[in-house]
Design goal:
Blueprint lengths: L1 E5 L6 H10 L16 E5 L3 H10 L3 E3 L2 E6 L14 H9 L3 E7 L15 H31 L6 H15 L11 H10 L7 E6 L13 H12 L3 E5 L1 H9 L3 H10 L6 H13 L1 E7 L3 E8 L4 H8 L1 H5 L1 E8 H7 L2 H6 L4 E3 L9 E7 L2
Parallel strand pairs: 1-4, 1-5, 3-9, 5-6, 6-7
Antiparallel strand pairs: 2-4, 8-9, 10-11, 10-12
Helix pairs in contact: 1-8, 4-5
The structure holds guanosine-5'-diphosphate.
Guanosine-5'-diphosphate (GDP) binds next to helix 1 and helix 8.
């Protein structure tokens, strides 16, 4: 999964991104995390893996990972080629979801590009750039489809939906706010429009405002109200605090630090959780003496495709998925004890994998 961090200049993107890369995953486990300075990889915390490691006496834990891409430089006018506008916009095209950092902290030492702080105006500025860029794409598509229509009347329905999308953009609204049928969404996905991407708004607040999840901060309230209108998520963080957390060496130190602040979770953990929720993702687990490991899949995925995440051979030669719920395994301590209780299931091709399933795939090579 790849998330792109956007936001106006001076809102705390780099501070957050640096905290993310510093908290970063052990690169040995993620060969794809190369030296690109704009990409940071974090492992997804999953306490179930620690328990499984004990049960199986495994050598190591491999967490699943999320890639964060720092898409700095998206400014007013980007869609018209201001700055390095178009390059940034094409970076956004590649991500699964957008993490939109919004400044909700006061600090007279940190200038705001528009002179004062206004979270809603900032959101609108960035969203409009994405909308303008989408409009250009749609204009070209509409021209092409209109021409094609002379020879092929079946293009009429496509043209209708393209026009419907365009109207929404002209009202200054993002495509993701639209009420479309599943078929229409499938078609929209093929267009790769920026404003159709799911968004998490990250409200960057001062340390004091972290308490009660930003409830005392008017700008956070405004962000929440806006996000609700488009089914986007909101995560309240303090980029500065995240930077301090990232400096700490051990998990214990992190826990203690969070406790002194009266917090249960770091902002980064909240962000990860929120992205799973937003994108409809779950994790299944594999366990053995060599390693215990979490794998991320889309909710609703069937057993062979889930196995395909591990290796394409598993999907191709799928026979059965020996499956047990993590809680059941934990309760009975070993696979054989759980088997006696009838809690280990042999699931077939149509089985829909659930979050926390511990699976051993049987397959023909
Ligand atoms: P970017 O341009 O969006 O990448 O913003 P930066 O991460 O470079 O941050 C801009 C400035 O705001 C820097 O001086 C940061 O130290 C400061 N800053 C970032 N996050 C916070 C925060 O949560 N509180 C305060 N007071 N300052 C912050």
């Amino acid at each position: 999964m790849k998330l792109g961090i956007v936001g106006l200049p001076n809102v705390g993107k780099s501070t957050l991104f640096n905290a993310i890369t510093q908290a970063g995953a052990e690169s040995a486990n993620y060969p794809f995390c190369t030296i690109d300075p704009n990409v940071g990889v974090v492992s997804v915390p999953d306490s179930r893996l620690n328990k499984l490691k004990e049960l199986y006496d495994s050598k190591k834990i491999v967490q699943t990972a999320i890639e964060f891409v720092d898409i700095a430089g998206l400014v007013k006018g980007a869609s018209k080629g201001e700055g390095l506008g178009n390059k940034f916009l094409s970076n956004i095209r590649e991500v699964d979801a957008i993490v939109h950092v919004v400044r909700c902290f006061e600090d007279s030492n940190v200038v705001h590009v528009d002179g004062n702080i206004n979270s809603l105006r900032d959101i609108e500025t960035i969203n409009l750039e994405l909308i303008f860029s989408d409009e250009e794409i749609l204009d070209r598509r509409i021209t092409k489809t209109t021409k094609g229509l002379k020879a092929d009347k079946t293009l009429q329905s496509e043209l209708n939906i393209l026009k419907k999308l365009k109207e929404t953009l002209e009202e200054g609204k993002s495509i993701r706010t639209m009420d479309l049928t599943e078929d229409e969404w499938d078609y929209v996905k093929t267009l790769d429009l920026l404003s159709s991407k799911p968004v998490i708004y990250v409200s960057n607040v001062s340390e004091d405002d972290l308490i009660n999840d930003g409830a005392n901060n008017e700008m956070v309230k405004a962000v929440r109200e806006f996000a609700a209108t488009e089914d986007s998520e909101v995560v309240v963080v303090s980029a500065q605090i995240e930077a301090e957390i990232a400096e700490l060496e051990t998990e214990e130190e992190k826990h203690e630090f969070l406790e002194t602040l009266g917090l249960e979770q770091s902002g980064l953990d909240k962000l990860i959780q929120s992205s799973y929720h937003l994108l409809g993702l779950i994790s299944f687990l594999t366990a053995g003496p060599q390693e215990v490991r979490a794998w991320t899949i889309k909710k609703g995925m069937k057993a062979p495709q889930a196995g395909g995440k591990i290796h394409s051979d598993i999907e191709r030669g799928f026979i059965k998925a020996e499956t047990i719920a993590y809680e059941d395994l934990l309760e009975y301590g070993t696979m054989s004890a759980a088997k006696e209780k009838g809690l280990v299931r042999l699931e077939g091709k149509e089985y829909i994998v659930k979050d926390g399933d511990v699976i051993l795939f049987k397959f023909n090579v």
